[in-house]
Amino acid sequence: MDDLRNYIGGQFVAHSSSQWLDNLEPATGSHICRVPLSDASDIDAAVAAARAAQPAWGALSHSERADWLDRIADALEARYEEVATLESRDTGKPITLARGVDAHRSVSNFRFFAGMLREHEHEIFEMANATNYVINKPVGVGALITPWNLPLYLLSWKVAPAIGMGNTVVCKPSELTPLTADLLMRVIDEVSLPAGVVNLVHGDGAGAGAPLVADSDVDLVSFTGGTATGEKVAASAAPAFKKLSLELGGKNSSIVFADCDMESTVAGVVRAGFLNQGQVCLCGSRVLVEDSAYDEFRDRFVEAVEEMRIGDPSDEATDLGALISESHLAKVQGYVELAKREGGALLTGGTSCVPSGFEGGNWMAPTVIEGLSPDSRCATEEIFGPVVTIHPFSSEDEAVAIANNTRYGLAGSVWTSDLDKGRRVSEAIDTGMVWVNTWLHRDLRVPFGGVKDSGVGREGGKWSLGFFSEAMNVCVKHD
Ligand code: NDP
């Protein structure tokens, strides 16, 4: 594959330095392509292009911009299989997941926000002698920074509402997974989106991400990534009062009550724990089980985990692929070693499991650990890999206390046949989102985001439109 290039002002351009990053395939360790190691001068050029394009783009109507989003959706949909294949290769995730989740959602993000823009109406508040109407103006130039686990899914989730509301943007995807961001730029080029509306700079966090957030001509920052990076982003953006949305890490609980439907719960909790090799911010990496059902659930859960097929990501039968990088694999394995020191017992996994022919890749067997204190580091810190800890509880209050006993507050799930209990427990959990008897069941209209160290702000549906715009009230006195 050819070296990648930045996309600035409607052109694929060389970066200013002569330095490159190597993009490696997680499943094999083989070299895919070289990625520009861009620096602050590339960021300056991209921000200048975005700034120059903003007035004309911001002056279009919502429905004109919605038409552009639909053109991008159509062009992406025509490349559906290419999106899935690139995403699977770049991330190590199974091709079926890349098709059903990444390729599918990337298209529907553009279509969904096109529809929302067309329906968007000014809010009106009548007074006895005046009328207030609220308009949503563009914020200006947005910095969109995304992680490696759901590359195009998350990038499109930001680009669509950001440009839909009249902003122009500079994207900085993860250096580890640049392929579908590059594809999106090719699609944008193909549909002839006005130059400078969407720009993309490849590079690492320190060299490209940090200068982008700090750039004085950037008005808004939408960041999805780890909590430690989020702290740096917030510290850099706050003094300039930039509009800021942070979608950060999670340590989510799946709470299983004895009255659940055991079969569907086991399947649902396995999916919540291990989808994308556990590398989803919403993954239920702590399973809390009511003590009267603990033994039965644990045994069936472990059996189901052991049935998952690990292997070639391009094989349709594969359930679990590779982890993103050698260093991430080492971090996840480090947590397994820590769990042993913290008194945990491995019920399954904990080892490397390299499929034949994939010796250079980053492979790990799905791992289930019991016997850890709910206060232990492995039960409270984000591992972000195929590692689930399992803990008994004896009352609703105890389940809620364990679920809330972490610095994170992103998501969770509750499994019970008593829906009143499901709602009661859900509402007591300090997170931004909870599912009852399901997980990752997404309606794009609902708010998405976390509390505590899982982030600040909400995106999704009208919350995205609100974040990517400035609400302005105009009060007109009647005669
Ligand atoms: P990182 O925080 O390491 O990186 C996220 C992005 O930020 C990357 O593009 C990275 O660049 C960039 N970056 C790194 N340093 C800086 C900086 N100083 N200034 C600006 N940008 C910077 O996260 P990961 O990519 O490792 O992603 C995994 C994390 O993302 C997990 O914690 C996960 O929970 C979280 N996440 C949260 C989601 C949510 O919606 N809440 C959804 C998905 C993931 P580069 O990688 O090129 O160095």
Quick recap of the structure?
The chain is an alpha/beta fold and 479 residues long. It has helices spanning 40-59, 62-78, 80-91, 95-119, 151-164, 179-190, 205-214, 227-237, 262-274, 294-307, 326-341, 377-380, 396-404, 419-428, 461-467, and strands at residues 6-8, 11-13, 20-24, 31-36, 123-126, 130-138, 141-145, 168-172, 198-200, 220-224, 243-247, 252-256, 284-290, 345-348, 367-370, 387-393, 408-409, 412-415, 435-436, 451-452, 455-456, 469-477.
SSE topology:
Layout (H helix, E strand, L loop, with lengths): L5 E3 L2 E3 L6 E5 L6 E6 L3 H20 L2 H17 L1 H12 L3 H25 L3 E4 L3 E9 L2 E5 L5 H14 L3 E5 L6 H12 L7 E3 L4 H10 L5 E5 L2 H11 L5 E5 L4 E5 L5 H13 L9 E7 L3 H14 L18 H16 L3 E4 L18 E4 L6 H4 L6 E7 L2 H9 L3 E2 L2 E4 L3 H10 L6 E2 L14 E2 L2 E2 L4 H7 L1 E9 L2
Parallel strand pairs: 7-8, 7-10, 8-9, 10-11, 12-13, 12-18, 13-16, 15-16, 18-19
Antiparallel strand pairs: 1-2, 3-4, 5-6, 6-22, 11-21, 14-15, 17-20
The number of helices is 15
Largest sheet report? 7 strands, mixed
Could you say what the CATH architecture of the largest domain is? Answer: 3-Layer(aba) Sandwich
Poorly predicted parts: none
Q: Shape, please?
A: globular
The largest sheet has its strands arranged as: 14-15-16-13-12-18-19
Helix content: 40-55%
Bound heterogens, unique: NADPH dihydro-nicotinamide-adenine-dinucleotide phosphate
